[in-house]
Design brief:
The chain crosses the membrane at residues 50-81, 123-144, 151-172. It comes from Halorubrum ejinorense. By secondary structure, the protein is mainly alpha-helical. It has eleven helices and five strands; from the N terminus they run αααααααααβαβββαβ.
Length: 284
């Protein structure tokens, strides 16, 4: 039976690589050993929609009470960094209100395209973070001197960055902004530093090299433009990793079957998409 599934799978992959589109996934899906938990997926999406509504509510309320924007920005950034020390970018996928807006609503209008390689360069992150914090500091200083509300600079930054995030989400994929988000970058960097100091790494997706057939479907659903299958005991190129200064080409190294890219959101989308169950993720 297993031999027949393997034959069907190899034949299907041969046709796809020859130009046959993925219009019918049954040739791969029939070899799955475990079903996708649709209830868990829907529960996660429902939570993200609630977070998205809460985020929009915060923005609207902050127009009359700008201090709310300051509390929201500082609170979310602190939470992202705090959780990042223990769980990497777990906060970005599961708890971030703006992430909920992007996944819950912007996803419906997104073109679903990957961002250019240069967009993932660490230098782009530095420029975005420096610009955001520089403008915020300038705004706070001006508000302090003029006796205005210190919440206004936070509201301005939050509104402008959200417009940019939505625009990128529509042009590329819904989470394109998350690849350069200053709070996400800090979360990423703090976790790498915690690892270097001896703390256990965050839960990670693991790749079974024997089961992986390099179909690439996991990479098409990753919202951070990571290709998990590339980590199956072979050379891997880390695009966008804060500590991989490999230029637009990325940094190439040997992988050991663990997707240890610092921008992994731990969302399990790649695990759910894998047709051969080559990917696994233990959240504990």
């Amino acid at each position: 039976m297993a031999g027949e599934r393997t034959v069907r799978l190899v034949e299907r992959l041969r046709r796809v690589r020859g130009g046959d589109p993925w219009f019918d996934k049954r040739g791969l899906d029939t070899v799955r050993r475990r079903p996708v938990d649709d209830e868990t997926i829907e529960r996660r999406r429902r939570r993200q929609r609630y977070l998205g509504v809460a985020f929009v509510g915060l923005l609207v309320a902050a127009i009359w009470y700008p201090v709310l924007a300051g509390v929201g920005v500082v609170g979310c950034a602190t939470a992202a960094v705090g959780v990042g020390a223990v769980r990497g970018r777990f906060y970005c996928n599961h708890l971030c209100p703006r992430g909920g807006l992007l996944d819950g609503y912007v996803r419906l209008f997104s073109r679903g395209k990957r961002t250019p390689d240069w967009f993932n360069h660490p230098l782009i992150r530095v420029v975005v973070a420096a610009t955001a914090f520089g403008l915020l500091a300038t705004g706070i200083r001006a508000a302090w001197r003029q006796g205005g509300s210190l919440g206004v600079p936070f509201l301005t930054m939050l509104a402008v960055s959200t417009l940019v995030a939505v625009g990128l989400g529509v042009v590329y994929h819904q989470r394109a902004w998350c690849q350069v988000c200053p709070a996400g970058t800090l979360s990423h960097a703090v976790h790498r530093i915690a690892e270097a100091l001896g703390r256990d790494p965050a839960p990670r997706v693991e790749v079974d090299a024997d089961a992986c057939v390099d179909c690439g479907r996991c990479g098409t659903v990753c919202r951070q433009d990571i290709n998990p299958g590339q980590y199956a005991d072979r050379e891997v190129t880390d695009h966008g990793d804060v500590f991989s200064w490999g230029g637009t080409e990325g940094a190439t190294r040997e992988a050991d079957g663990v997707v240890d890219h610092g921008d992994c959101l731990q969302c399990s989308a790649c695990v759910e998409e894998c047709p051969t169950d080559a990917l696994s993720f233990d959240a504990e």
